[in-house]
Amino acid sequence: MRSLPLPLALTARITPVAVLACAGWALTSGPAAPPAAAGSPAAQKTPTQSSSADPSSTAVSKAYSTAPTPCASVPAATVTALVPGAKAEGKEIPSTDTTLRRTCSWNALKGYSYRWLDVSFEIGQSEQEAEREYQQRVTEKSGGGAVPGLGNSAYSVVNLTTEDKQQTREGVVMVRVSNALVIVTYNGSDFDTKKAPGTDEINQGAIKAARAAVGALGSGQG
Questions:
Q1: pLDDT computed for residue 219 by the predictor
Q2: Is residue 21 over pLDDT 70?
Q3: Cβ neighbours around 8 below 10 Å, total
Q4: Contacts of 203 (CB under 8 A, 6+ apart)
Q5: Cα–Cα dist 45/26, whole Å
Q6: Which residues contact 130 (CB under 8 A, 6 or more apart)?
Q7: What is the 3-state secondary structure (H, E, C) of the chain?
Q8: Cα 66–183–24 angle (5° rounding)?
Q9: How far is Cα 196 from Cα 105, in angstroms, rounded to an integer?
Q10: What does pLDDT average to over the chain?
Q11: CA 103 → CA 18, 64, 129, 134, 152, distances in Å?
Q12: Tens of pLDDT, residues 159-201
């Protein structure tokens, strides 16, 4: 069997760093009312204004406080099916803050067939922040569609790229669950035929991994 080099597109991976911030609210009061005449109802009963908002009115929805262990999020049987020849334990990618973002990768070349799977968890400061991030990413990856019955909202998209006549097909599934985002990337190539696996194979594989990863979030850690 001849040894074939991997294309640069498959050997270089970029791990984005999620930048998470929360917004503050400034409260301002209106102009003072003119003094009321003595004995008038207004003078006898003057309403008071609180100097700060009720904490319950500014509370944010935050079900998750930390990211789960990513390399334990996908069952070994699923890893074997999606990435033949890969070690079930995977490899966790270094992160600047493992509380907020964690990623695990599995990749293997079996014969001439190559597969790569990434599963990432990103924890936002609030459900609203996670929703904004989710919508922004969906906008950036147009051409896909919704995945019903997965998280609060889910989206999948598949793209085909060609480099040096070698095709690679990649599927991305993004899921929002409360204040958490689950991002799954799954791609593959065949170095003998230089063709890529079918769209359905990649899309369904990415969705299967995403369902497992969402289950790994559990019932909340906040």
A1: 55
A2: no
A3: 9
A4: 156, 158, 171
A5: 28
A6: 122, 124, 176, 178, 179, 180, 181
A7: CCCCCCCHHHHCCCCCCCCCCCCCCCCCCCCCCCCCCCCCHHHHCCCCCCCCCCHHHCCCCCCCCCCCCHHHCCCHHHHHHHCCCCCCCCEEECCCCCCCEEEEEEEEEECCEEEEEEEEEEECCCHHHHHHHHHHHHHHCCCCEECCCCCCEEEEEEEEEEECCEEEEEEEEEEEECCEEEEEEEEEEECCCCCCCCHHHHHHHHHHHHHHHHHHCCCCCC
A8: 50
A9: 20
A10: 80
A11: 12, 16, 20, 17, 21
A12: 999 999 999 999 999 999 999 999 999 999 999 999 999 999 9
* CA angle, 210 then 213 then 217, to 5°: 135
Name residue 66's amino acid.
Answer: T
- 91-116: pLDDT as tens digits: 999 998 988 999 999 999 999 999 99
Asked if CATH classification 2.60.120 holds for the domain at 65-216, the reply, yes or no, is yes
pLDDT, tens only, 33-65: 444 444 444 434 333 333 333 333 334 556 899
In this structure, what is the dihedral angle of CA atoms 133, 137, 138, 143, given to the nearest 10 degrees?
180
Domain map of the chain by residue range?
A: 65-216
Q: Are 124 and 19 in contact (CB under 8 A)?
A: no
